[in-house]
Amino acid sequence: MGSASRRPWLTIGGHVALDLCNTRAWRLDPARSIDRLHGWPDLLDWYATVCPDAAPLGEQGKHAAELDRVRTLRDTTIAVLDAHLDGHDPGADQLGRILTEYRRFLRAATPEPGLPLRLHVTGTDAATLPPRLCAHVVNLLRDADLTRLRRCDGPGCGSFFLDPTRNRSRRWCDPDDCGNRHRVREYARRHPRTSRKT
Asked: Which range among 57-66, 170-179, 183-192 shows the weakest confidence by mean pLDDT?
């Protein structure tokens, strides 16, 4: 299916790794949970949206193994972040899976000239995408201010974001989506409908 690629991708996480996690939408509600990465074209379309300055990937085709690696990276990252937000240490096996993919990135990476040291992966073949994305995941886990990491308060949503607000008060992935649903529920709670007389 390619329906996801015809829908605008939301970049609400504040970090590429979080936007990758958020491609599993409504993940806390089994009845509504959706994997928006249906196939390789969806993944390419999403990547072009969240990393518009990155070297484009020109390969078309199914690329099932690479898509599988990206999904595994995403789901492992979700598990690590959920554990962190729930006050638990992520499991060594989960971090080990991320490290395995990151080693692929390091083997394929070349340094940019100058300091501070920055690495990047060149090439447009499908095999470069999982390690490229893993580099973003490692950057998030190693360098981001995870005290600002949040999970959307919307029932069933589970989307991640970094809260940039000064008083750390952001609650919703998107004020026009889960935030609006909350306002509608609160209005209905405060103004219950009265039964019409027959």
From this structure: 183-192
What pLDDT, in 10s, does the model give residues 42-76? 999 999 999 988 877 766 777 999 999 999 999 99
Q: According to the 3-state scheme, what is the secondary structure of the chain? A: CCHHHHCCCCCCCCCHHHHHHCCEECCCCCCCCEECCCCHHHHHHHHHHHCCCCCCCCCCCCCHHHHHHHHHHHHHHHHHHHHHHCCCCCCHHHHHHHHHHHHHHHHHCEECCCCCCCEECCCCCHHHHHHHHHHHHHHHHHHCCHHHEEECCCCCCCCEEECCCCCCCCCCCCCCCHHHHHHHHHHHHHCCCCCCCC
Please list, in sequence order, all residues whose beta carbon lies within 8 angstroms of the beta carbon of residue 134, skipping any fewer than 6 positions away.
73, 98, 101, 102, 104, 105
CATH number of 3-190: 1.10.3300.10
Neighbours of 168 (CB within 10 A): 10
How far apart, in whole angstroms, are the C-alpha atoms of residue 54 and residue 76? 24
Burial of 94 (0-12, 13-18, 19+ CB in 10 A): middle
Does this model's pTM top 0.70? My answer is yes
Cα distance between residue 136 and residue 119, in whole Å: 11
